[in-house]
Amino acid sequence: MTRSAHRTRRILQAAGASASALLTLSACSSSDPGTSAGSSSAKPSGTVTVFAAASLEESFKTLGKQFEKEHPGTKVTFNFGGSDTLAASITGGAPADVFAAASTKTMAIVTDEQDAAGTPATFVRNQLEIATLPGNPDRISSLKDLTKPGLKVVLCDESVPCGAAARKALDAGGLKLTPVSYEQDVKSALTKVELKEADAAVVYKTDVRAAGDKVEGVDFPESAEAVNDYPIALLENAPNPGTAKAFIALVRSAEGQKVLSRAGFLKP
């Protein structure tokens, strides 16, 4: 090999090494928001979008503020609603990082389309309760009392978890009930009672507790037959997976569980 050819070869080798180094550096600096390549200790950053069942609103807003305080520079945005509606939005391509559903059935809508990254984890459970007007003027003491003539009762639509659970509880009691309306999420059902547009609604214990003195809660034994598991999952196309994982970790942590327990949720 001539001296000139040997020199050319060395120059090409050096250029190749430099290009490789630049590519490695580029990969480290342009990783997904909230993460760094190959690092599990990167600080959460940027915005994380959470789609969550309506019944989680108060608890998740508290956890969102806590997360932002613990991780300056982050922002947690929420979309609360009926789990089935949220699941349909996710499978339809709506950008989101995390999905927290009020039942395994609605989470399956997302996992069946392979839109969840990994296996969803149950983080809490929830039980039904009857919400009545303050002071319980209609003297409702059981699920059967909701079948009284003239009583205006509201249920969630059976396509959403609270409605499916109410149907299961009614079936367990051998009861038939025709509500004045079916609502698309549990908050809408509760609002009907708060506004005195209904005498009672079958909702979650957590929603009754969140409403304070606006309603009164009545327990009923059939609710034990219709306890809902709440799964949470990182989404496959999450724009900010690193920060999303950190938020999920907070929800599942002992600290997060304390917030959820105070709201009336049951341990998984």
From TrEMBL:
GO terms for molecular function, please? metal ion binding; molybdate ion binding
Report the domain of life of the source organism: Bacteria
Quick one: which residues bind molybdate?
A: S55, S83, V186, Y204
Q: Which Pfam families match?
A: SBP_bac_11
Return one Gene Ontology term, BP aspect.
molybdate ion transport
Q: Which residue positions does the secretion signal occupy?
A: 1-29
Keywords from the named record: Metal-binding, Molybdenum, Signal
* CDD domains xrefs: PBP2_ModA_like_1
Q: Which family does it belong to?
A: Belongs to the bacterial solute-binding protein ModA family.
Protein's name in the database: ABC transporter substrate-binding periplasmic transport
The organism named in the record is Streptomyces azureus
